[in-house]
Structures are given as C-alpha cells and as structure tokens.
Design goal:
Blueprint lengths: L2 E10 L11 E2 L1 E14 L4 E6 L5 E5 L10 H12 L7 E7 L9 H17 L5 H16 L6 H8 L4 E6 L5 E5 L4 E7 L10 H16 L9 H6 L4 H25 L3 H17 L6 H12 L4 E4 L7 E7 L3 H11 L4 E6 L3
Parallel strand pairs: 4-6
Antiparallel strand pairs: 1-3, 2-7, 3-6, 4-5, 7-8, 9-11, 9-12, 10-11
Helix pairs in contact: 1-2, 1-3, 2-3, 2-4, 3-4, 5-7, 7-8
The structure holds adenosine-5'-diphosphate (ADP) and magnesium ion.
Adenosine-5'-diphosphate (ADP) binds next to α1, β6 and α2.
C-alpha cells in the first residue's frame, strides 16, 4: 500500500554549528514543505522520481552513495531496512516547495519524510525522536555530511508558527512561542551550495581540533574567557569562540523572545551573524551585504541561517513595516528572493 507523508522545511532562528558541539539551537518549522509517496517493493530496486529533477533514478538497496540527487532517498530506504521497517526497495515520488541547498533542510525533510512513510507502512511505533536520530545517520554515514541533529529534530517534530528550543546533547526540547508583533522572514541570497562540497566537513574537522585542544566534546559549554586565555592556534580559537558565544546567544534569545523583547533578539541575531562571518568564516560577501541592508531597511535583526557558504538569511521584522521593508530590500538585491515567513497568530 502506498503511504504519503509531508514534512516542513525549517529555518534556524539562532544557534549555528552548535548542534555537533554540545550546544542548543532554536529552529522553527516553515510553511514550505516536502511531500513524498512511498510504495514498498519486494525486490531490491529503488525508483525515485521528483518534481524538478529530471528523469527517474533507478537504484538498488546495494548502491553506495554516488553524489547523485537520489542519494538521500536511497540512504533512507537502506536505513528503513536496517530499522526493520522495509524488507526490500521502494517506488518513491517527491514534490517539494523547499528550495534545495539553501539552508532550509530539504535533505532532512526528504529523509525524515521517507522514514516516517516507512514507519507507517510497517505499522511501527518508533518515536519521532528515533526517526530524527535515524535520519541523521543517513546524512552522516550514507551521504557523508557530518551534520548534527538539529535539522532532523526540527523537521520531524516542530510545528509551523512556533520555535523549538533544543538541547542537542540530551535531545530535550520545548516549544518557544514567537512574538505576534513581528514576522521571521526568510530571504534567499540567490547563492546555493552543497554541503557535500567539503567546507562544512572542514569546519567540523576544525571543531574536532578545538575539542582536542580543550579536552572536551562540548565546545559550546566552554567559558568564552577560557577560550580567549588558551594558548592555541588562532583558527581553532575563532571556531571555539563562535561555538561558546553562539550557545549563550541561543539561551539569551529564548529569554528575549519569551518576554517579547524583539529588540534584544534582533541584537543577538546581528551578533550571531558577525560571529559566523568573522569567527566561523561561513558567510559570503553577498550575504553579509544582504544582512546589513536588511537591518538598515528596518529589520530588528538579521543573520545567515543554516550550514552557511550560501543559502538564506532570516530577518525579524515588525509586521506593520514588513511589506515596505521587503520591497526595499529586494529592490536593492535583485538576485535575492522571498521564500517564506513565520507570522505567529
Ligand atoms: P539543504 O540545506 O536543502 O538540506 P543539502 O545539500 O543538505 O541542502 O540537500 C540537498 C539535497 O537533498 C539535494 O541535492 C537532493 O539530493 C535532496 N533533495 C532535496 N529536495 C529534494 C526533492 N524535492 N526531491 C529529491 N531530492 C531532494
Ligand atoms: Mg541538508
């Protein structure tokens, strides 16, 4: 029997690259989403067709990842077999409004959706958290992206219109209501990137070097003063400083949003962007300019969102001024485009 499941894309409001360094994150589900239909097969074949991707990919459950667009789908089916949810391959069709390679977790949405579909087909009682953990394994072990758990937890669990304060060490989370006065607007910079291109992995390796230098797995829990004082390589220091300060900004942001202090949240977004640009070196000049102009045109705050090196920014904007703000920003940045907005009610 065919099973159809939909998952949302997500925007990370703050807390970048903290999810594999023992820290907190604050993602929120979007209204852009991905829907997949999965039909289990008895044989070992996997066929994948997706709107926007040419042709039907014909693969098998024995295939290794080959840098193909169908890798996340194939990895999901192999993981579903390992979990006992499927016995053989599957026919898969996908349609999505989440722009791929843009920091909005299209890959996690696809993998989580297929694992949830396999769960339903098997009548299994695996929890959404277990699905998220399995989906991360697909990215880490099959596709080869050494990402943390944020994307999978957000798309598996978070609901549109609210944010998820997630401790990535314990996987405990709580819902954070967003102020009704402001919109969280997602603007695409016009630059896409592939997380498999190596720069994400390079940052992960630099964080591993920092972990070894400080003798901890939890860079985010380091005291920023201890990071300054340490006798270490300057690149390693900058990466560790980003993790330690970004983690604190997540906690401060949760407090600010819960008390309706969008001004303070905006200031934290701006500080987060500076840290991603200068300490983690994951931004691009075109994205820095977009963030700067977003604030100049009246956003309370703005920052790059997602893994970096391209993709989207998120801005916190007074709802009453939003349309004027958006028009002015997009007029100044013709390659940028509106993707989605969270407008809490
Ligand atoms: P993102 O930030 O969007 O998660 P990634 O590079 O991690 O970027 O993942 C993008 C990859 O996910 C695509 O190259 C493709 O393999 C897969 N993908 C995303 N959307 C779809 C879709 N609609 N249909 C099929 N595969 C998709
Ligand atoms: Mg991804």
């Amino acid at each position: 029997m065919a099973v159809t499941v939909t998952s949302p894309g997500r925007v990370n409001l703050i807390g970048e690259h903290t999810d594999y360094n023992g820290g907190w994150v604050l993602p929120a589900a979007l209204s852009v989403s991905l829907t997949a239909t999965l039909m289990p097969r008895e044989d070992r074949r996997i066929s994948v067709s997706a709107r926007g991707y040419s042709g039907t990919a014909e693969r098998t459950i024995d295939d290794a990842a080959g840098g193909d667009w169908s890798d996340p789908a194939v990895g999901s089916i192999i993981e579903a077999i390992n979990l006992g949810l499927l016995k053989g391959g599957a026919d898969i069709s996908v349609q999505s409004s989440i722009p791929a390679g843009s920091g909005l977790s299209s890959s996690a949405a696809l993998v989580v959706t297929l694992l949830k579909a396999a769960r339903e087909a098997a009548g299994s009682s695996l929890s959404d958290t277990e699905i998220a953990v399995a989906a991360r394994r697909v990215e880490n072990d099959y596709i080869g992206v050494p990402c943390g758990i944020m994307d999978q937890m957000a798309v598996a669990i978070s609901k549109p219109g609210e944010a998820m304060a997630l401790d990535t060490s314990s996987l405990e989370y709580r819902v954070v209501a967003l102020p009704k006065t402001h919109d969280m607007v997602v603007i695409h910079s016009g630059k896409t990137r592939k997380l498999t291109d190596g720069r994400y992995a390079e940052r992960k390796e630099e964080c591993d070097a920092a972990k070894a230098a400080f003798g901890t797995n939890h860079l985010c829990l380091l005291d920023p003063e201890a990071v300054e004082a340490a006798d270490i390589d300057e690149t390693v220091r900058r990466r560790a400083r980003h993790c330690a300060t970004e983690h604190r900004r997540v906690h401060a942001s949760i407090e600010a949003l819960e008390s309706g202090d969008t001004c303070q949240f905006g200031a934290l977004m701006v500080a987060s962007h500076a840290s991603m640009r200068d300490d983690f070196e994951m931004s691009l000049p075109a994205i820095d300019a977009l963030v700067e102009d977003a604030v100049e045109q009246g956003a309370t705050g703005a920052r790059l969102t997602g893994g970096g090196f391209g993709g989207c920014i998120v801005a916190c904007v007074d709802r009453a001024k939003r349309s004027e703000w958006q028009e002015a920003l997009l007029a100044k940045h013709p390659k940028a485009r509106f993707v989605d907005a969270i407008t809490p009610e």
